[in-house]
Specification:
Layout (H helix, E strand, L loop, with lengths): L14 H16 L4 H13 L10 H9 L3 H14 L14 H4 L10 H11 L7 H16 L2 E2 L6 E2 L7 H16 L3 H15 L3
Antiparallel strand pairs: 1-2
Helix pairs in contact: 1-2, 2-4, 6-7, 8-9
């Protein structure tokens, strides 16, 4: 078992779940050319706990079945979640790979479509480079974090330390999954960690 992740009781998969697992694993195995399909397949495996027949935790499944580390698996799942939020039917180009999406993981998922649209509009000749993406992310984070008013002098000062957006996002995703699975104690523990990250003592 992987340290730091709670184990879950083993329960047999139904035939429908076995079929879904086989389909998802086929996508992960082949890659199908993009990390977004792999990320989506991993999301389905995690959210439906399709790994439970052979592994006690999703992290253990990723490491033993696919040799994927936690951070990479979470990044490609985060990228897949955000891709689903882009409106279909528009002429907006889509991100080409996980590397291009990685900086957007610092934002809340619902902020991604607007941020991506801004990056495409900012890009010269529609070429969304890493420098364009980073500039858009910096601007959005500066706007959302804003300037924190000092209680003593009434002046504004920037928040100290690095913004823990990636950790918060990971913990929120985990808490949502735990709520869906009825694991309220674990979800509350994750929320307390988030509170500690956002409002350190």
């Amino acid at each position: 078992m992987v340290a730091g992740e709670p184990s879950e009781p083993a329960t047999a998969l139904s035939q429908n779940e076995r079929d879904e697992l086989e389909e998802c694993e086929g996508i992960v195995e082949k890659g199908l050319g993009t990390c977004f399909e792999v990320g989506d397949a991993l999301l389905r495996i995690r959210d439906s706990r399709l790994y439970r027949d052979t592994h006690t935790t999703f992290q253990q499944y990723c490491q033993e079945r696919w040799h994927l580390g936690r951070s990479y698996a979470w990044r490609i799942m985060g990228a897949a979640e955000r891709m689903k939020l882009l409106p279909s039917g528009d002429n907006l180009p889509r991100p080409a790979n996980e590397f291009q999406m990685r900086p957007f993981l610092k934002l809340a998922p619902e902020e991604f479509p607007g941020a991506w649209k801004r990056a495409v509009k900012t890009a010269k000749e529609g070429r969304v480079t890493l420098s364009v993406v980073k500039a858009v992310i910096r601007e959005l984070l500066a706007n959302t974090q804003g300037m924190v008013r000092s209680p003593k002098k009434g002046k504004r000062s920037k928040p100290k330390g690095k913004w823990p957006g990636g950790q918060v996002l990971m913990l929120l995703t985990e808490a949502k999954r735990q709520v869906k699975n009825g694991e309220s104690d674990k979800a509350l523990a994750a929320l307390e960690k988030i509170e500690g990250l956002l409002f350190p003592a």
